[in-house]
Amino acid sequence: SAVISQKPSRDICQRGTSLTIQCQVDSQVTMMFWYRQQPGQSLTLIATANQGSEATYESGFVIDKFPISRPNLTFSTLTVSNMSPEDSSIYLCSVERDSSITDTQYFGPGTRLTVL
Amino acid sequence: AQSVTQLGSHVSVSEGALVLLRCNYSSSVPPYLFWYVQYPNQGLQLLLKYTSAATLVKGINGFEAEFKKSETSFHLTKPSAHMSDAAEYFCAVTGGTSYGKLTFGQGTILTVHP
Cα–Cα–Cα angle for B16, B111, B81, nearest 5°? Predict the structure, then answer.
């Protein structure tokens, strides 16, 4: 398994501001992902965080709104920029140790964001 | 493209009763299927996964799921519900060029009554 921590665990922000969420893993992993879970809904993949290169974004998500960094194999950040109330969600980081299709994806505890 | 449909957003059972949470998938490539559980204010925890080995998969906490290709289903069961099973359960699929990118169902909230 993998031990994943996220900071902050929750935050309340004003519209128009930005928040950076950190994801730290206890050991090196190949794959890191960011998901969004809107209130009462399921999880949606935002992007794959690539170490040393630009993140790969899913349809409907753009780098200007959700810039992602991954400076090494244990750490990644997701920034939610120019926030609006529609960005109120739980943001989860997940990891896979290798890129094998049978590998398990482990999830962090999530960051609960409320935008006023 | 892949998709997952979980039938029933809410399921309620009595303690000791059978738990059955339904999941149907759609995939143009051989799927890999997962069940995750999310307890209140926590992240997701893997219950079990199907990766093309045995079609009957046993997971943690007494849960199991059976992959049925003919029915495109991967239903989650537990013979006897416990109060601690109350949580939200998510079915997810990946496969082919989308591997690593999990597509989740809408989730099923399980309530267990004493």
Answer: 20
